């Protein structure tokens, strides 16, 4: 047998791969990383501040992974958000909470998390080979062979921790999907998740930068309502972003229509408010009668214009048809999606190794013994707020428990 032999080979030195390796001592573990340095994608998480997890009861976390949260339940219960904090706190990293429960290292630097992971791997005796992309994998006679430019490596256990396809400049180019298929697995078609949307005829582009807390967004396809969500919305120069859009992007497609509720008030309530305001202050301009909508003044002014209400129209001059258009645009503003942001701007990948082919209690393949899939290579993608990195740590921990039993 040519090449070096290990107990376990992990492909990918991101948070999942490094965390798994750190929990496998005293096994002989090799981590193969295609980039020059490990953790490239981790270093840009949360704009470099590294939103590592979220607060709250871990039981509620499964609601934040689209349609596939149930698969993650054993992993999340085995290594929870509290476990993540404790693990890194014991390694000198302190944390702060902000923005509705998001958890960051107190330094607001992803370097602290990566350094802690690399130190843990060093303590575990892990061998990390950077700038060594895996080119091909195979399984024969109970051993995995991983071919690279620098040689072929062998192990009883193989872990795919390659991530998805988002931010390809960090090395996430879907390699793990190819390897999984080579070993007999099925891969659900990958597509961008946690991505902004680009819209056709963006009439609110001049309002780029305005954020609307608690906006309502419903998505329609072929005249049928698919779902509705509430959250913070950001108007951009090309369309819409913010948590409510990013979290729903996994289900959106080109040609869908978004209907945005800028105001927290329901249509009937808002209509009554406008009627009352017009009756009480009929000489005031319409845009000055909308303080109760809960919308920024610049947005209100533009929505009045979008409702075909001439500038200078007063409350007493507002017609029923104009009022109806105004209420509709404040509570169900129609936006046609031109396209969802691609993998270059998406924060995560939807799709991946099919979950019914993976044991959710161990993250081990049901098809090939000794093969493990962890992190974003799986068909899971979380909401914004640290849920994706949490899934990396939880699945890595679960896999490591089983790998130690095998070895």
UniProtKB/TrEMBL annotation:
Keywords: FAD, Flavoprotein. Residues 191-346 form the RsdA/BaiN/AoA(So)-like insert domain. Gene3D superfamilies: FAD/NAD(P)-binding domain (3.50.50.60), HI0933 insert domain-like (1.10.8.260), Translation factors (2.40.30.10). Residues 7-401 form the RsdA/BaiN/AoA(So)-like Rossmann fold-like domain. Its cofactor is FAD. This is NAD(P)/FAD-dependent oxidoreductase. It comes from Methanocorpusculum vombati.
